[in-house]
Amino acid sequence: MELIEKEFKEIDVSLLREADYYVKKTKNGHITKEEEQYLQWLAKSMKNKVLQPLVVVEVDDKGLYEVVHGTKRLQASRLAGLKTLPCKIVAMPKDHPKENLRILNENIWRYLLDPTL
Fold first, then answer.
1. What is the CATH code of the structural domain delimited by 4-113?
2. 8 A C-beta contact, residue 28 and residue 98
3. Partners of 9 in the beta sheet?
């Protein structure tokens, strides 16, 4: 079972939400200082151009979307005051066997590319 790309379009940031399984928080519910610095840096870079679209799934018929890949970009876009983001809309069932592997892969690459490590 593969992800099926449905369409590519700019989506209003207010219609995007983090996935329920996104748990990149500390025990007290706040992000770390390093994470905040990274988000500030990303927000600054996104004001110029968003290079990689978010991957999203439609969650209801009201036009709301859940982010599969790109949660950091969504958070940074809010800091940057962006109104829309480029998104690739895909069809993916919640029990998709590769969903967690894709999330893990994205997080590993972000960690490996972090210049502060």
1. 3.90.1530.10
2. no
3. 87
